[in-house]
Amino acid sequence: MNRDFLQELGxxxxxxxxxxxxxxxxxPGVHLSSYSPVDGQLIGRVSVTTREQYDAVIEKAEAxxxxxxxxxxxxxxxxxxxxGQALREHKDALGRLVSYEMGKSLQEGWGEVQEMIDICDxxxxxxxxxxxxxxxxxRPLHRMYEQWHPLGIVGIISAFNFPVAVWSWNSMIAxxxxxxxxxxxxxxxxxxxxxxxxxxxxxxxxxxxxxxxCNLINGDYQVGEWMTTDTRVPLISATGSTRMGKxxxxxxxxxxxxxxxxxxxxxxxxxxxxxxxxxxxxGALFGAVGTxxxxxxxxxxxxxxxxxxxxxxxxxxxxYGQLRIGDPLDQHNHVGPLIDKDAVAMYLKAIxxxxxxGGETIVPxxxxxxxxxxxxxxxxxxxxxxxADSKMARHETFAPILYIMPYATLExxxxxxxxxxxxxxxxxxxxxxxxxxxxxxxxxxxxxxxNVNIGTSGAEIGGAFGGEKETGGGRESGSDSWKAYMRRQxxxxxxxxxxxxxxxxxxxx
Length: 509
Fold this sequence. Notes:
alpha/beta
């Protein structure tokens, strides 16, 4: 495979044909090796951050914060604008790295970099809109207002499935708010983190910025644990499993720090009697198999009106037969590999569980073998009919496994959808306005995202992204999510010659 994109991103090629990424704190003794799920080949190695290096990173970040917070927000926005422009220049190369290191289709890899560019544009505008409030005081010749200040260091722990976009959601908004950040990318996609850091380094140098504004650390859970227990890091934004999120929440909560958690999803599409079948097929299929089912917004469940159940089942099964599975950098293919063989093992275990509880196989699964599938990470997207109370359907399996179940009334369908522990994304396919409005009402979806006539997967950066229940409750990206990265301060100013107390309290000497 042509690996020119690695060189463009500052990932140097060694004599053995692999590449080595270096973070800002290099430990020559211990490395993470990144193997591509596409072909099983070693892409490169990155140095693992030691405890001493971690402390040095934090100290440098603390010093950089004192400088960065003093720069006017619109000027900080200008730096972010330049980073967005640099991403435009490297979009093809970075998108190819995302696809090759993570395994998602090239279209999705490019799309993820475009999402980074979009959030930079959003953050640039936001840098002139960090608004507070003014309030009328009950005391004469007083005024009150609220303002927002940066927190300091924002710790970012990201997952493998979106190895660059989720970091940018957090970091670009945090930067215009006046924060600095320390990022621990997934150990399953570390080179993407190094590439983003290399691009940032060029922008920082062009603007004569000090080191320590954007920082990268690498390693396993222990490196992340250093951040979660560190009182010098007031906010931890973590993306990953619900199990991981509960640990992070307890650890950071114990020191009264702040968390922003984006955790598991078990997303459903309700398909009503009036649904447009063309929209159903496109939304359900991409939602179920895009990124090989490894999105937190992937469609896991189809809840179908009993009058359309057989039609949806049969047409979707036929569409599965047209999927092309293979090298995700080949744009003729729809589905790439799972991230690694551990993910394959979880996929196979889930299928065993579905069959054990009596699920009906509509499209069978399995691991693909032969030419082009040497990595052992390519699997067949599969499709099962289950009962509404299926235990397997209540659990999120990060793989292309889809469940279908019937319903009789919309109230029943909404109850089925809301019955799972997770609450991230949801959708309804209907041409009936009453059905869509009920779904969006307080009596409808309990998810953070509720869509009408589009699928569960994929979100625009303008809306706040996140969910409820075991999804964590945090919000990233657009809307007013910037407030999570700042502290609110209420100010009262007395411009009189008296000192009246609030609530009319008298304290005369």
